[in-house]
Design a protein that fits this description.
This protein has a single domain, classed as Metallo-dependent phosphatases (Purple Acid Phosphatase, chain A, domain 2, 4-Layer Sandwich), CATH 3.60.21.10. It has 535 residues and is of the alpha+beta class. The protein has 9 helices and 27 strands.
Length: 535
Amino acid sequence: MPTRREILQHSAALAAAAATGAAAHAQTTPTPAWDAGEVVHLLPTVSADRILIKASFRTPLTSAPTLAAGDKTVSGLRTDSAGETWSFDLDGLKPDTAHKLALTGGGKALCAPWEIKTFPAPDAAPQKLRLLVFTCAGGHDALTPINGITRFLEMSSRRKLLERGLSFRPDAVIANGDHVYWDIGASRASKRLGLSPEGLAYAGRFDSKLPVMGTKNEAFLKKAAGPQITPLYGALCRSTPVFFLQDDHDYFDNDEADDKAITFPPNHWMLDLARSTQHMYFPEFLPDANRPSGLPGASAADRPTGVSESFGTLRYGKLAELMLYDVRRSATLAGPSAVFVDPDVEDWLVSRMKATDTAHVVHVPSNPPGWSAGKWGEWYPDIAEGGKLTLDKPKPYWQSGWLKQHDRLLSAASAMKGRIPLVLSGDLHATAEGRIRKSGAASFEANPVHVVLSGTLGTGDGGWPSAFRGAGAQVSRVLEMDETLAPVEENGFSIVDFTPDEITIRFFKWKPRRDPVEAIDRLEPFRTTVLKRPA
């Protein structure tokens, strides 16, 4: 774990941004260093009346620490065996209010106080919302380059990209999947990740016959997952709510299928690893009055009351509702009736698109509509041959029901009256944008569905689709789509602004070796898109 000196250095002032152009919206004055004390990392999420925090500490705590907000105090819940990781759950808070938090243990402060603001009440009418959105932030510095080809962007550069994104002072962060890359299953990527010589030397070998927590597997998980999360975030997001969605690599495998193995839906040990990683390091999704409490992975007895592990809501008054959903956990292999998300989840998504209590309703799935890399676990049947996508050959083990569900969801999005159908996606290592007009016989011409790949924080040379698969992401041959920004294989993120009448998306990119590291502090958008609500 990082030392206190390292944490304090990382928590120092965000770089001053240029005072012109888009960067004028970024933070332009240094922020005093915050004393992290015993804290290694803090990741909070909020709703209108609740705060949930995951934290880790430099040394194990032998008794439960406490978190106070005004006159409310809660004891921490230990989330590991040693007392290094803890969860804090504050409920019954006032909406749209900056709450000063204090973390204590053993009769002393564990870090300096800090503030975080709850979201507006569901019936409030905020006029703006800003989000920082990215995907694929994972990557372990123990997995060094292979013949000069990096497996991941180094942690220091990833952290600078995160700092630059946070300098625009977003109201929340969406980290969409692949926080951990340590494949140990059947995928071919496992030989250069968790089952590589470096991976085995660093974390050891996982024993799938044992539970994760309370066995030698717990030490394995802390070595494999912890260094991909805690050094990146540290306490940078202590005052910015985060929404972490999981995807295939968070289950310690890649989405692949052949005659020897099919990697999803996750088996028992994959699910145990994913749940344990989330339990220790980043918050689950808080309850929402309009999201059923019995969806898959929700309301588990061994988790904070009512939280959801795979399906979440970012509700910001009457302005916006973003629906986040993991397509891996409840996927089925039932041919024409197969689904990526459970039918109850689909019902929830459709019901929220039909509701009229927010100006914007946005999809945030872990797997993107619009583009394909020829992978097995995609919405589409395309395969890659000679650097191009084709439908001429069947994709082994691909399920036709997945595309049927895709068409149902996009049809419901297009049918929304007076709203922009928008999907902000994860998984694919790229930044891209387009408008889907048709999918097979399903037409969205009356209100095309806008699709966005938000940018990737952690991808290295060997992780881009063109490098790993021999073909970059391309528009699926199933679709009629206006590709307004072809996939850009560079690291980056997006800033998404909501007002009652429009959504503005600013795209940022940076490429190692071409661009100096110092340029990250001054990054400005290379593209800006303004989407206006239809009449």
